[in-house]
Amino acid sequence: MKKSLLSLTVLSAVSVPVLGESTDSASSIPDLETLVVVSSRQDEPLRRIATSVTVLDEEQLKARGLASLADVLRSVPSVSVNNSGGIGKTTSLQVRGESGFRTLVQIDGIDISDPTGLQSGAHIEHIMSSNLQRVELLRGPQGMLYGADAGGVLDISTRREDEGQRFELSAEGGSYDTERYNASASGANETLDYFLSAAALETDGFNTSSDDTELRDDDGYDNETLHGRVGWNISELWRVEAVARDTDASGEYDRCGWPSQDDCNFDFSQESARVSLAHNGEDGQQELAYSHSDLKRIYIGGGTSYEYEGDIEKLNLTGSHGFSREHGMVYGVEHREDTSGDLDRDQWAVYSEYRGSYADQAYITLGLRHDNNSDFGRFNSFRASSAYLFENVANGTVKIKGSYGTGFRAPSLYEVNHNATATDRLTSEPLELPTLSPEESRGLDLGVEYFGENSLYLEFVLFKQVIDKEIGWNNDAYGYLQSQGTSKSRGVELIAETQVTDTLLLSANYTYTDAEQADDSPRPRIPKHLANLGFTYKPTGALSLLVNLRSSAGAEDTDGSSIDDYQVLDASVRYQLNNATAVYIRGENLADEDYEEVPGYNTAGAAAYAGVEFSF
């Protein structure tokens, strides 16, 4: 049925009348006026921002074409991805060598963390790239405005229209019997705006585990995601908005239970919603928002099933106030309640940050946050940043920037409960495991950016992040222990984008990361060297070719053994048949590189996909 639908959709592309070619050739190279939200929770031009931020817009996301957002982010500076056996399988998104759970992930303002997880991170593997308009990544632990434990922030936004209506339909098919479908509608006028989408992905996948030498079955994955947003501008000053998102996923995987088995299944569902009331005045804006996210996971293998269910509720009051054109502040009050089964915790926070501009050349922020955790008491954290512009330098502008932030992470509900209830595996006697206390962290960024009249962008960043009292699993103790020393992640980021000609854009980034645990041993599965080299070629307004080569080197596994270095080549071609129809083909791992990200788990070989997209 699905294959017939895909064939019909592709064939119908030729019946759409030619309305003309797209001639939008705007460069994706950032400039000083590029607006960014993630750094300060409101629109700010890059000239004012001293933190390190990466932005991907809708055009860039579509050009890459990759189904999973985690795969798209592999080309972003300082991001490494560890995947355990293909799309939909357990995936860790690591920014600057830090564990994936330290990066806060939110979609249209909804925190999608998992309160039932080992460390409460988001399940990035279930976020598909369809229907996303903008992705912003704050690289580093300067996310004080989002939570003292945010070591990075991934802010995802769905499509918004300024006016008129837009409808999209798309279908894709390819390797591993993969099929992907999408339908969306969006519109806006002076009073109302909306966005609705439905996306589905189904794949037979491949054998997840290299140790599965007997069953050798393909481990498939299905994902269905519904998303809706509606906004009502009650007046010029007041606005109401509601967002709802529902993700249902299921799949097969290997190596579950004890002794290990290779016939395992999982089901995942997450239902999220957010409502907000915003006021926009001459001197500032305020927003009162309530969000709720309910998550459920079920794992089945060897006749045994494990079920986890929890939710997160947040109530936020955020605002900004401008004392003058040069000086202002952002502020907020937040209440969060996490529930996992019979366990629960709540946390209050209040924060404020001063933002100053001096002669439109120097910019400073000073922020303070106070958290009160029901289990671990009170903590203070702060952030300071500064940027200074030198204009008319080599036909461009140079920005020197620096930022420093502190934070803490309370032990997750799972970590606390395990240490309190763990028993000896042989005698079933209670184990005497220590009571955990919050981790404390701090991070420093120092960087230089060059903006060369929309044709050249260069960035150089030195970063260092340290964590005291880091919590980790100890197999000998069969519990979670805290390090007595300090774990560190430090390195260098080099980023370059240049518009070589009107039709050719080159981009490159390199990250060196030295990530160590408290005992000075390398942090497992963190590459020392990450690099991307890519180009986008647009010979006409209708045709575009994107090629990207990514490289990973210098990673070690949990036992200290080396993980093989690898290089992966991806490419995609997109052709705009007319204003309403685009077709594309995509090749992944074109050189058929045989590599591992997590030892013992397979990765996809050479693969090809083709699709069609209607937009009207």
List the helices and strands and how they pair.
Layout: H1 2-12, E1 35-36, E2 44-45, E3 53-57, H2 58-64, H3 69-72, E4 79-83, E5 91-95, E6 103-107, E7 110-111, E8 132-138, E9 152-158, E10 164-174, E11 178-188, E12 192-206, E13 219-233, E14 238-253, E15 264-280, E16 284-301, E17 304-322, E18 327-340, E19 343-358, E20 362-373, E21 377-393, E22 396-409, H4 413-421, E23 439-451, E24 456-468, E25 471-474, E26 479-482, E27 486-499, E28 504-516, E29 529-537, E30 543-553, E31 566-576, E32 581-588, E33 607-615
Parallel strand pairs: 6-9
Antiparallel strand pairs: 1-2, 3-8, 4-5, 6-7, 8-9, 10-11, 10-33, 11-12, 12-13, 13-14, 14-15, 15-16, 16-17, 17-18, 18-19, 19-20, 20-21, 21-22, 22-23, 23-24, 24-27, 25-26, 27-28, 28-29, 29-30, 30-31, 31-32, 32-33
Subcellular location: Cell outer membrane
Family: Belongs to the TonB-dependent receptor family. Hemoglobin/haptoglobin binding protein subfamily.
Keywords: Cell outer membrane, Membrane, Receptor, Signal, TonB box, Transmembrane, Transmembrane beta strand, Transport
